[in-house]
User: Which sequence fits this backbone?
């Protein structure tokens, strides 16, 4: 309760005592003012105490943060942007033995905050001196046109980073990131393809596949649920290196425009080596060609993208189908007297040869008779022939794990007339890829089970549908063996490894129609060892010429065959194949000494 200024009892008592009652009011008023001042002072002191405590806490927090920053490693500021977090980690790629083909490496990107720069013009000139591809004037314009952020380089080497450090301008900043590294350089470049940056931030960048298996298996390589488990390929690094080395030497010596080779396990469909020349370095992948023939670009994968008329390598398919249908046996005789007439068309033998009047099916393959193969194909019929080639996978895009395979669509005539039936039987007028050819030969080599090629390591044999019987497959291999021992591929014999195969010399078609007289695509499709087939090797050369003698030789027997033989000679021991020593013929002459 508030104390009254003029309490009645005190007023009455003062009047009785003869005192002035107004002094009582003045005294009470003074006491009330003093009490109010005391309360006001107490509140002010409390407010000052709280304010001081707040200042102390704020200064303590600032000091603690400064101490924390001083005790940690300095990092660049992080650029904030809406969207999901960038996933930079990408799984390694290894060969079948665990050797690294592709991995990740930590590097730095260079960017700038122009508004923090002290000397934009000087920085632009110094950066242009470090990076010759940069233009100093263009950089200066970007630094001075009001931008707050400028990318300068996506990837820096340690030496370049040190040189940029030495410029010493506060507006130059570095952002850590991962980049894809291919430690073997050009080796297996067309298999791996390459990678580049996708979504990018200051602190990280998304690595995405741009070609080859890097792009085909991009989702698997970026999948966090895999826990960084490497992607294991069927490629053997040592064998791949050997194949590329021999193929390059052969392409150079034979003056070829390009070359391709495929080594495949016939039981699993695994591709042990796949080479295409000329090649490139996936660490510094070239820009795709925008003009000229795509086939001239090193990025072009001749083993998969290149669809060619594969010549006489197709003849074994016509023979195998005839054997399977019961239309012929290896000993069946056919009239091979040239020419084979089909309306206005005449089919002749290579270089005007004549293998007639009669030749067995084995001799037709051994001597590579166009007329004999054509007569076998007419006996089969176009519809059955087309269905069989499709069953072998020769008329479809290869399902191998390469994005380039989708480009390698076989070229098939719209109408399958009798002339197409004949020419397709000896590999003209129909184009397919070397990889499709390898899978078709592997189907014959493994006993007739269809082979699906793969670049991923498999632990079990193929379980595809049966295309031909084991008996037909065995007879076909025996005939292919005769091609090497007694026929057009005699230079393909590798002692101890029983090579079987078929040559193919196809005239190169002109873009305007017709064929060149002096340009060919040469192929040798081989199986080894013939007695127990385990591998198929396809070697293709684009416009080769053997000029070692006075006469220029362009046939596969002189070009693709010796290259394939050298590859087999060198890789067979690497794959653990023991040479089989064949006993000398009974009538052979042997050297003896006393």
Assistant:
């Amino acid at each position: 309760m508030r104390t009254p200024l003029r309490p009645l009892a005190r007023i009455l008592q003062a009047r009785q005592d003869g005192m002035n009652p107004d002094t009582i009011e003045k005294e009470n008023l003074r006491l009330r003012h003093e009490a109010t001042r005391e309360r006001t002072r107490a509140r002010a002191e409390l407010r000052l105490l709280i304010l001081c405590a707040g200042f102390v806490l704020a200064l303590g927090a600032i000091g603690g943060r400064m101490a924390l920053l001083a005790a940690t490693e300095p990092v660049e500021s992080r650029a904030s942007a809406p969207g999901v977090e960038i996933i930079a980690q990408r799984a390694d790629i290894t060969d079948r033995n665990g050797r690294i083909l592709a991995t990740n490496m930590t590097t730095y990107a260079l960017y700038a905050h122009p508004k923090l720069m002290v000397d934009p013009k000087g920085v632009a000139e110094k950066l242009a001196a470090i990076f010759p591809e940069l233009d100093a004037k263009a950089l200066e314009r970007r630094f001075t046109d009001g931008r707050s952020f400028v990318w300068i380089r996506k990837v820096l080497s340690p030496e370049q980073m040190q040189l940029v450090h030495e410029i010493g301008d506060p507006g130059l900043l570095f952002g850590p990131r991962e980049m894809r590294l291919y430690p073997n350089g050009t080796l297996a470049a067309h298999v791996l393809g390459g990678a580049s940056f996708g979504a990018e931030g200051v602190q990280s960048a998304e690595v995405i596949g741009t070609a080859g298996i890097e792009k085909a298996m991009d989702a698997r390589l970026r999948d966090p649920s895999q826990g960084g488990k490497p992607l294991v390929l069927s490629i053997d690094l040592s064998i791949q290196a050997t194949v590329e080395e021999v193929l390059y030497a052969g392409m150079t010596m034979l003056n070829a425009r390009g070359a391709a080779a495929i080594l495949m396990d016939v039981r699993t469909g695994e591709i042990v080596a796949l080479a295409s020349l000329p090649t490139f370095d996936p660490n510094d992948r070239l820009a795709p060609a925008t003009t000229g023939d795509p086939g001239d670009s090193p990025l072009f994968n001749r083993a998969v993208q290149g669809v060619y008329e594969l010549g006489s390598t197709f003849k074994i398919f016509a023979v195998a189908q005839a054997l399977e249908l019961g239309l012929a046996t290896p000993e069946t005789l056919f009239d091979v007297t040239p020419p084979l007439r089909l309306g206005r068309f005449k089919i002749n033998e290579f270089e005007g040869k004549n293998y007639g009047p009669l030749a067995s099916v084995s001799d037709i393959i051994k001597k590579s008779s166009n007329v004999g193969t054509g007569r076998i194909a007419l006996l089969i019929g176009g519809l059955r022939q087309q269905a069989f080639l499709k069953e072998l996978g020769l008329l479809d895009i290869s399902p191998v794990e390469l994005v380039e395979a989708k480009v390698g669509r076989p070229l098939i005539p719209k109408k399958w007339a009798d002339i197409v039936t004949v020419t397709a039987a000896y590999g003209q007028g129909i184009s397919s890829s070397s990889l499709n050819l390898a899978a078709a030969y592997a189907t014959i080599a493994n006993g007739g089970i269809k082979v699906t090629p793969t670049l991923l390591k498999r632990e079990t044999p193929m379980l595809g549908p049966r295309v031909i019987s084991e008996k037909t497959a065995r007879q076909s291999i025996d005939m292919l063996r005769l091609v090497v021992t007694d026929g057009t591929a005699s230079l393909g014999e590798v002692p101890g490894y029983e090579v079987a195969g078929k040559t193919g010399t196809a005239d190169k078609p002109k873009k305007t129609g017709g064929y060149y007289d002096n340009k060919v695509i040469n192929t040798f499709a081989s199986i080894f060892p013939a007695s127990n087939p385990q591998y198929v090797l396809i070697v293709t050369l684009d416009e080769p010429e053997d000029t070692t003698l006075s006469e220029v030789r362009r046939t596969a027997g002189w070009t693709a065959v010796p290259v394939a033989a050298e590859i087999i000679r060198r890789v067979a021991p690497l794959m653990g194949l023991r040479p089989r020593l064949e006993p000398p013929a009974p009538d052979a002459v042997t050297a003896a000494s006393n």
About this structure: Residues 75-85 have pLDDT under 50 and may be disordered. The domain at 85-113+177-222 is CATH 3.90.1310.10 (Penicillin-binding protein 2a (Domain 2)).
